[in-house]
Design brief:
Rossmann fold, binds phosphoric acid mono(formamide)ester, 9 strands, binds norvaline, five-stranded parallel beta sheet, about 40% helix, four-stranded parallel beta sheet
């Protein structure tokens, strides 16, 4: 059977994704009730290649492997041959001889695809310039835990049409909810990704209008990793796109607010937004652990029913 990879949310069927969300919730409940006693990965190894910084992604994958009885290896281009020009496809072939799965955070999504095409073990996208699908597993899990089925509900993305926004678009397709994207002119998501989502996604430019009656509001930094020199220009261009308590007041009474983190208080969110009970970002961050355990289990062991 062909190796399954997780490069975008489109690599799994809607049914498989719904299973992962339920499985993540079950694994989380099991951990809370019994401690880390479920250890299906004895002697299994995950290689983690990080070409960009990370706190949540590294800690969640490394902890997931440890709690499952396996092991995770942190690999940086600074001290591997990847940083000295060894072709990524060669690295993929070598690692597949030794480890059970590979997780990659990198710049080029095409580079990730090249790696995966050469890998005989599952490859997981831990963020590229174009997508961040692991974050969406945790986000949909959090939304589901707090509000039940997300099908037919309305989420609003405020901010840059970036990697997170692209993954929200794919989530709207796969989990069948409505997504309103509200960004400044010139910061729209990629047209092909938008087009593929059809009428599940609408594009707006006025945050006050976009959030009305929304079930979920989310945003992200204005300048992503690799765009640091654009910070000043983006701060000017995104004026008026800050998510505040007052903006959330225009959404549904039971709205929740998500942010993949790290957050910049005073920029894309107000200074105090994360203290508002509608913000559930710590639960969301914690769910990276449980959702990714479900993903690793699925890719390495196949479907496990709770
Ligand atoms: N949200 C997220 O991926 O965080 P890190 O960059 O800290 O991994
Ligand atoms: N859009 C952000 C997400 C960080 C988790 C970035 O790519 O830097």
């Amino acid at each position: 059977m062909a190796t399954r990879h997780f490069l975008t949310l489109l690599d799994l069927s809607p049914d498989e994704l719904r299973h992962l969300i339920q499985r993540g919730i079950a694994i989380k409940n099991g951990l809370k009730t019994h401690g880390p006693t479920y250890t299906p990965f004895a002697n299994r190894t995950l290689a983690m290649i990080f070409e960009k910084s990370s706190t949540r992604t590294r800690v969640s994958f490394e902890t997931a492997m440890a709690q499952f009885g396996g092991h995770a290896l942190f690999l940086s281009p600074r001290d591997t041959q990847l940083g000295r020009g060894e072709p990524i496809a060669d690295t993929a072939r070598v690692l597949a001889e030794m480890v059970d799965a590979v997780m990659i955070r990198t710049f080029s999504h095409q580079g990730l695809e090249t790696y995966a095409a050469a890998s005989e073990v599952p490859v997981i996208n831990a963020l590229t310039d174009d997508y961040h699908p692991c974050q969406l597993l945790a986000d949909v899990m959090t939304w589901t835990e707090l509000r039940g089925s997300v099908r037919g509900r309305t989420a609003v993305w405020i901010g840059d049409g970036n990697n997170m926004c692209h993954s929200w678009i794919n989530a709207a397709r796969q989990f069948d909810f409505q997504l309103r994207i509200c960004c400044p002119e010139g910061y729209e998501p990629r047209q092909d990704i938008l087009d593929a989502a059809g009428d599940r996604v609408t594009l707006l430019h006025d945050p006050q209008q976009a959030v009305v009656d929304a079930d979920l509001v989310t945003t992200d930094v204005w300048a992503s990793m690799g765009q640091e020199e654009e910070q000043a220009r983006r701060e000017a261009d995104f004026a008026g796109f800050q998510v505040s308590e007052a903006l959330l007041d225009r959404a549904a009474d039971d709205v929740i607010f998500l942010h993949c983190l790290p957050a910049h208080r005073g920029e894309e969110i107000s200074e105090t937004l994360l203290d508002d009970p509608r913000a559930v970002v710590w639960q969301e961050a914690g769910n990276r652990l449980h959702a990714q355990k479900a993903l690793l289990e699925f890719l390495l062991l196949g479907r496990v029913d709770s």
